[in-house]
User: What shape does this take?
Amino acid sequence: MRNIKWQGLIAILLLLSTRLSAQAPMNEDGPVQMADALHTNGKIYAVVAVVVLIVAGILFYLIRLDRKITKLENEA
Assistant: This one.
C-alpha cells in the first residue's frame, strides 16, 4: 500500500514538471523582461531557492501528515 502511494506521488510530480517546463512565454516579442533582469542581477537564484524551499516544505508536511494518519488508522 505504501509503495503505491510513493509511485502515485512520483507520477504526479513528473506530470507537473513536464507541464511546467512546456510553458511558452506570454510575450511573443521575445523572452520575459523581468526574468532577464533577475538573471542579469543574479537574483533569479534567490527566487528559485525560495520556490524550492516552499515546495520541499509542503512535501515534508504532506509526508509527515500521511505517516500520522496511517499511524492513527492502524491504532483504530
